[in-house]
Amino acid sequence: MAKRSLYQRLRSNPRVRTALFVLGVLLMIAAPLLGPLPGPGFIILFPAGLMLALQNSEWAKRVYVRFKRRHPRYAAWTDRLMRRASAARKREREALAAADGETPENRANGD
Q1: Of 1, 24, 33, 79, which shows the fewest CB atoms inside 10 Å?
Q2: pTM
């Protein structure tokens, strides 16, 4: 059996998970405040904070899934910035469908 990384072992502690979630929220709050400053602060801080929050909170995952369903265009941006595996799978499915000549509307209608 493979040895778990230090990060994975630490995340099994509820206090550490809570601290990482709080850190993620703080990074997301700090991102718009640092946005006007020169440099790529917002582009780095917000996805990092969102990633920490999503990894360490079931509540944050539920809220994010609801957001993705309501606003798929914006969710695609966040998934791409965070390099989520689900976004990569979705892009591969869309590329295969485009190569076959299918459109999402045709698949939804069963044509």
Answers
A1: 1
A2: 0.62
